[in-house]
Amino acid sequence: MNGILVANSSGGVLIENNYIDSTGINVMFGGGAQSVGANITNCVVRRNYITKDEAYYNARALAVVNGNINDCTTKNLWECKNGLYFVIEDNVFRNSYDYIGQGQNGQVFVPKNQSYGSPGFDPEAGHILIRGNWIDDFQIGMGPLGFAGVANDASAIASLYVREIHVVDNLFTDWNNSAFGSPRIFQISDQIGRLYWKHNTVYGANNLSNGKVMIFDSSMTTPTRPVDELNWDDNIQSWGEWGTNGGISRGGGPNGDAALAAVCTTYSCSGNAFMRGVSGTPTGYPAGNYYLAAWTDIYESADIAAGVYKPKTSWADRLASDGWTKGISDWDHFASRIAGVDS
Asked: Is the pTM of this model over 0.70?
């Protein structure tokens, strides 16, 4: 059961100051053919607590053990399968796992075009701003980005890919939960236009060797470089797997710079602080970034214990090229906007 579903609508939707708890997709836009003949546009999702009760996952596990795998199905927290000009800000998203036998249903954000088949027009997805949210206890931060369900249809691909997504000043915490599989921040499944990932903080105390920062699916069916433009700058984030599997990888293909060059028409990846567990730039990975050995190189121990991810003033490289701090650009402002949302 979905929490909120916006399907046959031309938009103008405001979802604000709610507690949304659902076994299915908590908030969903699009997803099927509709009759109004217009894209869902100009929507705002603000200051909501969007979560799943962990009892759902326990029920799911029991159903699997008893051989009744469809008795309890848990899905993603937010999906946009048709929508233009969205603002998703100041929300708390919590508890999103890919549990046993469900494929990839552990995602927090899923912007992709999957409303094709509507008569009279080609639905679109894109121009989405995701800003100032706290994402906690999850497996996949964003994915799969791109279209779905129209493999090898060149005419459909031209209109269906996601146009533009800005992900700015968000906090991601506790993304390493090995009980629910390999975590990752991004999973890009197929063609997208522009993806801006800037000034985000991704903290995980135990995921220096588990999970992936960004993975491009090996099954991409669109052109050789399906990502038109990637801007990945001035973030602080855990590194995830590196070496053989790669913190940045294309499934079945290259890692690091080679993966970015193979997938992106143009890209920048600079000014980021990657918590890798050892210092020094790994072979084949982008220069102009910082690869650090310990979280205490960036934060005070007391702040980490208190859940305050504000770079300490003694960290010489804390300022980004735009003059704000790396990671969340202004922690005090972020904390004041998110205060009380999950209570």
From this structure: yes
